[in-house]
Amino acid sequence: MRHTRALAALATVAALTAAxxxxxxxxxxxxxxxxxxxxxxxGRLVIVDGRRYTHRGTRGTYRTSAKRISRxxxxxxxxxxWRISFQGGSLRGVSGRxxxxxxxxxxxxxxxxxxxxDGFERIYCDRWKSQN
Length: 132
Fold this sequence. Notes:
- 14% of the residues are buried.
- By secondary structure, the protein is mainly β.
- The protein is built from one helix and nine strands, in the order αβββββββββ.
- The chain has one helix at 2-18, and strands at 30-36, 40-47, 52-55, 58-64, 69-72, 78-86, 95-100, 107-114, 121-128.
């Protein structure tokens, strides 16, 4: 009886530790053309994989939220997005959100970043249909 309880406890611990952690949803890999306030070029952001990126010749890592966030914007429309923050490279310390865009445009995904000087969202990186 004592051995059965010990084996059951070990099996429970093994099952709990083997369960995969919730993984964060990353933006699709590819090239994103970035502008500040829609007119000034900010360079090309390349999402390499689920945690690495390049921008202006530097390499770095980023993190995204595991859960999709929903909120109402100033017009009362519901926005759904994931948070993103950059840990290294030229975008170190920059944060924002990423989301798929409506299918009516040629932009497939957008990453909206906050300007690190004032925290206002004004840097927009767009992934176009014709790009990888």
